[in-house]
Amino acid sequence: MCREAGLSSVEIPGFSRGPCARGGRQCQQQKSSHMWNAVQLEGQWWFLDACWGAGTVDTESRLFVPRHDDFFFLTDPEHFIETHWPEDPAWQLLQPPISREDFEQRVFKTSEFFRLQLCLLSPNTSLLRTAHGEASVTLGSTHPTEFTYQLSKLQGTVTGEDVGTAHGMMTVSENSVTIKVIPPAKGLYDLMIFARHADSLDPYNWVCSYQILCLEPRSGEALPENPFHFWGLHQKVRDFGIEESSYKGELLVAPQGTLLLTLRTSRPLLASYELVNKDLDSTLSKKCLAAQAEHKKLSCHVLCPFQGYYRLSVFVKDLGGTSFRNTANFLIRCLGPVNQNELFPLGLSMHCGSGISSSGCGLSNPSHSDPIITTKMGKCNITFHAQADVEVTASLSKDKVTNTEYPLERYVLVTHLKSKVSVCIVLPEPGVYKVGLFGRNNDHKEFVHICDYIVRCSSELCWPPFPKVYSLWRRGCVLLEPRTGLLQEQSWVRFRVRVPKAHRAVVLGEEKTVLQLNPSSVWEGEVFSGAEGMRLRLAASFSPRCSSMEVLLEFEVGRGPPASMGRSG
After folding, report:
1. Helical H runs in 62-221?
2. I need a surface site. Which of 155, 299, 413, 552 has the fewest CB within 10 A?
3. Range with the lowest mean pLDDT among 234-243, 285-294, 302-311?
4. Within 13 Å and on the Cβ side, how many CA atoms surround 178?
5. Closest to 319 (Cα-Cα) out of 363, 245, 274, 269
6. Among 546, 544, 547, 566, which residue's Cα sits nearest to residue 555?
7. Count of beta carbons in the 10 Å neighbourhood of residue 53
8. 10 Å Cβ neighbour count for 491?
9. What is the separation, in whole angstroms, between the first and last Cα of the chain?
């Protein structure tokens, strides 16, 4: 064909290194095993291999698979020498030519390696020996490229079983990738590296291979499986909206089993997290994470109940986005685990503490911005500034409750003032609680979830519950006295309450006590509790023309301490 076209062409005998000939295993024979061509165009010689450009041989079936590959048409000599070594060194078209020994020791690269404009940073030889049980390779890239890899145990010349991602770590930056492998046993391993353009949805293509000889495996726990393959931050993390991490590397150490990961963001984002450990089931894993989403910051509190390695994966999406994207995978090494009784309660949302969700519901200036509240007194008070039309309610839960005399909802009292909402919480026993906040406004008549708080209580004080609250206890109503729903029997109790727009207020018990309105707009009076088991009801009338009374609060009479000693906040 070249003669017909008037072109100079020569056949070049030599040795080739294909998919089945890595690590210098094929080139031991003395006679040439392959032949290709050189063509002269405009005074310059170029290489072409019509055989390799037509397809490949499947390594398992040994059958030819047609696949056009124009890389082997007019190939650069610097690239051609990676797979073709001529008997005559002059036909390398290189100065100085490389030796056959150098050719055999070179890292095997596929045509895709050059198409993606990759380069070897270290090492440059295909056979690596482990040092302290591990070996590392680093590739460079000129543009954003995604990588993955496969580590397999070699048995003779046949690729054996994939040993999994638990024995390797891949970290990717904007222009490089480093893969560290930790073989599980002595022997020879094949490390195959795959890549694709960062914006591509095409399958990964094989780009190069190393062989790793493990002389002595490293003892210790295997790393957690990582289906996302890379560790640390994603190379396109800034495109996802992440500006900076509180940890610079991929390894996070938790000396006492706790850590806080924060990610500074360029725009509001939502995040979800996954924690994986060999001893951690899915239910327990949910009790180890507390996530907070603020306008320019994402935070995740992590608890580790077992010693060893964990994988913490981070997924983010924009507000209103349809799907989360894996943004980072951190390796956590826990030196001292936390007690499982100290784990977070079940059912936490991705909105813990104040942040995007609370501000979006009209709440601002939180008294507690951090999602974890620790109390040594067995009580706390969470406040927000609130827009005029915002109504808030709250729930209290605990995974295991010992004191079951009263429902936990009785230990939360929400008070709405003119521009402020207060959530007062008292606790019946020590432990870890979840406080859920819910809100509605004029545009949304149904209550929707706002955020969660975690309350850690170390107090042995057993606070009595608040009074039972009825629906007409609304904005502006304030319980000043008594601040407990459990009153001592046969005692006088002072009542002081604010009830806006009420024309009359009474306490109904053994007798009806009419409260008086003082100059400070507080209804007050002395009420006799009566016998144990009695129920006292605070009621009010909101119309001067109507004599019916609406119940606002209900108190119980028992053998508890005097109201002055058992005040709940």
Report:
1. 77-80, 100-105, 111-115
2. 155
3. 234-243
4. 11
5. 269
6. 566
7. 17
8. 14
9. 96
Q: Is residue 568 predicted with pLDDT exceeding 80?
A: no
Distance between CA 104 and CA 96 in Å, rounded? 17
Q: Note every long-range contact of 277-286, with CB atoms under 8 Å and residues 24 or more positions apart, other chains counting.
A: 277/224, 277/304, 277/306, 277/308, 277/309, 277/310, 277/311, 278/221, 278/222, 278/224, 278/308, 279/306, 279/308, 280/305, 280/306, 280/310, 283/346, 284/340, 284/343, 286/346, 286/347, 286/348
Give me 350's structure tokens. Answer: 């991705």
Flag whether pLDDT at 61 surpasses 70: no
Half-sphere exposure of 334 (CA within 13 A, CB side): 26
What count of Cα atoms within 13 Å lies in the side-chain half-sphere of residue 562? 7
**Nearest to 352, CA basis, from 391, 301, 390:** 301
d(CA 415, CA 423): 7
Give per-residue burial for 144-161: e unless 16+ CB within 10 Å, then b: ebbbbbbbbbbeeeebee
Q: Which of 52-56, 202-206, 266-270, 342-346 has the lowest mean pLDDT?
A: 52-56
Distances (CA, A) of 249 to 132, 170, 187, 239: 21, 12, 30, 19
pLDDT at 165: 76
pLDDT at 401 over 70: yes
Owner of token pair 């960062």: 198
> Does this model's pTM top 0.90?
no
- Encoded tokens for 92: 């390398």
DSSP character string of 515-561: -EE-TTS-EEEEEE--STT-EEEEEEE--TT----EEEEEEEEESS-
Residue 360 has φ and ψ, to the nearest 5°, of -65, -20
Question: What type of residue sits at position 57?
Answer: V
Under 8 Å between Cβ of 398 and 431: yes
pLDDT of residue 327: 96
Q: How far is 121 from 116, CA to CA, in rounded Å?
A: 15
* 292/353 Cα distance (integer angstroms): 6
pLDDT in tens, 427-464: 999 999 999 999 998 888 899 999 999 999 998 888 99
pLDDT at 156 over 80: no
Decide: helix, strand or coil at residue 105.
Answer: helix
- With tokens 């009580």, the residue in question is 379
Cis before residue 184, ω within 30 degrees of 0? no
Cβ pair 235, 144 in contact under 8 A: yes
What would the pLDDT profile of 76-86 be if each residue is shown by its tens digit?
A: 888 888 888 89
Query: Residue 45 is inside which H or E element, if any?
Result: strand 44-48
